[in-house]
Amino acid sequence: MSPPPTVTATAVILLWSSLLLHLLLLGSATAAASDACAAPRAPQAIYSSKTAYQLVHDDDTASQDVLRGCSAAYVWHTLRHGTRYPSATQAAKLAEKIPALQKRLRDNVAAGRAHCAPAALDRMLAWTLNMTEGQGNTLHAQGERDLQGIGHRLGLRLGGFFQRHPHPDNFTFRSTDTQRTQASAKWYGNGLFEEPIKLPEPLPDDPLLEFFDICPAWTAAVDKNKTARAEVAAFEEGPTMAAALARIADRLGFQEKLTYDDVSHIWEACRYAQAWDPSSEAAWCAAFDEEDLRVFEYHADMKYYYVDGYGHDINLQLGCPLVKDVIDKLSAYERREPTSAGAMYFTHSTAIHMTLAVLGVGRDVTPLTADNYETMKNERGWAISRLAPFAANIAVVLYECPATSDEKYKIRMYINEHPTTVAGCEDPDALCSWDDFKKRFAKVSASCSLDFCTRSAAAAGVGVGAGRLLHLLAAAAAALTLLLSTPAP
């Protein structure tokens, strides 16, 4: 038998310091509340894909109808549906898990263990899922306001253009076959035209707006493949997430560990309620400090990075249809063959994410991985809260310039109503050359095809970037070393 380890004086001091700190926290809930969930904060805009659009979009409605002598000539606009209710499955889980957590929290409060202000705890304990049977995945009233506002502000910014094209019939509308996208289209039209719009019959498995649903190769290689999300799982099981879970458990007075599954339901209750009412902090959001929120945001953003962003080559291969469409539509106008004054499409988050990636928006030099949270948490391009909240939208406006201009056409891209510089264009007003834009995406447009979707994942060219590949190889080598060094039983 080996001798017991020697306990140094330093170790004893550290141990007693740790115990004293823990006792101080347990014995002074009121003092701790001032540092944790005391007074309600301003609503946060860091809830990844469930972020409230109201907290993200550009409010500036100054006229942008004419820029440097060039007049708006064609509008291409693709939008994610507005704020929605959770799916029936998600709602059932919340209805099961949150009351169970509330019961345990009530016991913690009674025992004086919770480190939150009484008002914050009261709001958590009183919270219920405010939805009825049949509302699963449907557009919330806040989603109606989201889309109506987007349409209204677009009409203000491009007032002259819409005076020349005042009726919905002047435009091409297209939506997927869901209540939330079709209702979003109608509320957008109401805000823009102040009259009803006519939506064409939606296509089943629309190849333009639902290309991700008709690609078995991508489904097998990425969407249903846990290996494709290995970094996400590693982060979920790693020390950064463990520290966040421990902070939340301590804040709410849990003596036992809270699992990721436990806290993920608190996170969902928080961010849905926050999106439904962006005016004040939602009840369960008080359970998280800002660092906790950033940990959960990063976890969600990593999932989207690998499932439908830059994390796998097949995502960029699949995400071309809408980029091809904008090139085709603007080229038709340039040839004086437009079929309408603009195109307005209503789709889902996956289509938005993939289109952003193909456009080069939010691209990071370093991949998002399980071990670079600290360097990426505040400074990363792939920030879904900012790029793709509820009602996320991408607009490209074609501007026609006078004969005296150096170019006949220019374009301006907007992400969530913010003028956004196209990669390779350094214009301070984000007014970029149409010829350059067209050339930049000519290869994407010319080669865009979903034929690969029916081939096997391997044949489809599933791959990762070089940085990600090196990371995977290093992880595999470390795992193999550990395996070889472990003695046989």
From TrEMBL:
Disulfide bonds join 70-401, 270-285, 425-432. It catalyses: (2R)-2,3-bisphosphoglycerate + H2O = (2R)-2-phosphoglycerate + phosphate; 1D-myo-inositol 1,2,4,5,6-pentakisphosphate + H2O = 1D-myo-inositol 1,2,5,6-tetrakisphosphate + phosphate; 1D-myo-inositol 1,2,5,6-tetrakisphosphate + H2O = 1D-myo-inositol 1,2,6-trisphosphate + phosphate; 1D-myo-inositol hexakisphosphate + H2O = 1D-myo-inositol 1,2,4,5,6-pentakisphosphate + phosphate. It is found in: Cell membrane. It is an enzyme of class 3 (hydrolase). Its main location: membrane. Its EC number is 3.1.3.62, 3.1.3.80. Keywords: Cell membrane, Disulfide bond, Glycoprotein, Hydrolase, Membrane, Signal. It comes from the Eukaryota. The keyword Hydrolase applies. GO terms for molecular function: acid phosphatase activity; bisphosphoglycerate 3-phosphatase activity; inositol phosphate phosphatase activity. GO terms for cellular component: plasma membrane. InterPro entries: His_Pase_clade-2 (IPR000560), His_PPase_superfam (IPR029033), Histidine_acid_Pase_euk (IPR016274). Residues 1-31 form the signal peptide. Belongs to the histidine acid phosphatase family. MINPP1 subfamily. This is Multiple inositol polyphosphate phosphatase 1. It comes from Frankliniella fusca. The lineage of its organism: Eukaryota, Metazoa, Ecdysozoa, Arthropoda, Hexapoda.
